[in-house]
Design goal:
The protein folds into two domains: 127 residues, Immunoglobulin-like, CATH 2.60.40; 71 residues. 0% of the residues lie in helices and 52% in strands. This is Sialidase N-terminal domain-containing protein.
């Protein structure tokens, strides 16, 4: 599955690096990365997750760097024997082009035992740029769910979704329907509107209506 890079997300996985170490205690000292679509990105950060192949931000490798065509991350990561995993995460610019794409590949890895050139197992795969329209606690709403997207006769994009105000559970709860509009193809969006709110009934609070 190829996930897009989303504007407003603090972390977007750009690539995963796996190093199969033949023996323990090898040190990774530097990772050189080449970027495509670097102008759409604000910054990048590598993370070392060890034997865990899922993205985690607990152990940064090196510092967060500004996006350029070529960047070098310098840090220290001690490998164990077997597979060791790194993740490159990026933050997109607020004005990133939604028609743009981005990609990253590793040019070289400097270790305590020498220089490595990894094999790219996903060549020519590009990630689209998108936008996270709604996030946890946006406008004081706990959870947004069940989105729908439509285009009006005038070309306006309409995004509609559940606004689960207190928590993520289904009915009965305080759930309204929200709407966002975009008149420029999704690059910018207007303020959120509540288009359906059942209110209260017979004096009972909204979360039980």
């Amino acid at each position: 599955m190829v996930r897009p890079v989303l504007i407003r997300n603090e972390h977007n996985s750009l690539l995963q690096l796996t190093i199969n170490a033949k023996r323990p205690f090898v040190q990774v000292k530097a990772i050189t990365v080449e970027l495509e679509g670097a102008m759409e990105l604000e910054s990048l950060q590598f993370y070392f997750t060890g034997v865990d192949d899922g993205l985690s931000t607990q152990k940064p490798f090196g510092e967060r760097l500004r996006s350029h065509k070529s960047v070098v991350f310098k840090g220290h990561a001690r490998l164990t024997a077997g597979p060791n995993h790194f993740w490159l995460s990026c933050r997109a610019k607020a004005a990133a082009n939604l028609s743009g794409k981005t990609d990253a590949r590793i040019l070289s890895i400097e270790t305590s035992t020498g220089r490595l050139v990894p094999r790219d197992e996903t060549p020519n795969v590009r990630k689209r740029i998108g936008i996270a329209l709604r996030r946890h606690w946006d406008d004081g709403v706990h959870t947004y769910r069940i989105p729908a997207l439509a285009t009006s006769a005038r070309g306006t994009l309409l995004a509609v979704y559940d606004m689960r105000r207190r928590r993520s559970k289904d009915l009965q709860e305080d759930i309204d329907i929200g709407l966002l509009r975009s008149t420029d193809g999704g690059q910018t969006w207007g303020a959120q509107q509540v288009i359906m709110d059942m209110g209260t009934f017979r004096g009972m609070p909204q979360e039980v209506n």
